[in-house]
Amino acid sequence: MLTEQMKSLVKGGKCLVATAGKDGWPNIGPKGSVMLVDDSTLAFGEVTGKQTYQNLVENPKVAIAVMDYEQRVGYRFTGTAKLETEGPLFEQFAQRFAAMNLPRPVAAVKVKIESVYDLGIQNPGGKIE
């Protein structure tokens, strides 16, 4: 599902994660830890356990946006999140965060991508997958 260009942008680490709780109020925040799990799954470490985490507990639907403003290309990945508080993925984020002198994550958030939208100038807002 993810193209090489999409993977490259995600690896660049300039991602925003959007969530909404059961009340419908949106939340968006930068997540520098977004990584590829496989060709249809992204993940990030949730370090604060605040609004993003609380929203995902109430509503696992999530959007992750990544953009290269200079090249005018970007994508929005939407999917369903799974919160993992133990296991290999969680420990991978715990090690990455420790290396950056950050606290252990509250959870690893694994997102199965269900659709991809173009945020670039070629097909703005157009659904890709």
From TrEMBL:
Residue stretches making up the Pyridoxamine 5'-phosphate oxidase N-terminal domain: 3-118
TM spans (from-to): none
Entry-linked Pfam families: PNPOx_N
InterPro entries recorded: Pyridox_Oxase_N, Split_barrel_FMN-bd
Coiled-coil segments: none
Protein name listed in UniProt: Pyridoxamine 5'-phosphate oxidase N-terminal domain-containing protein
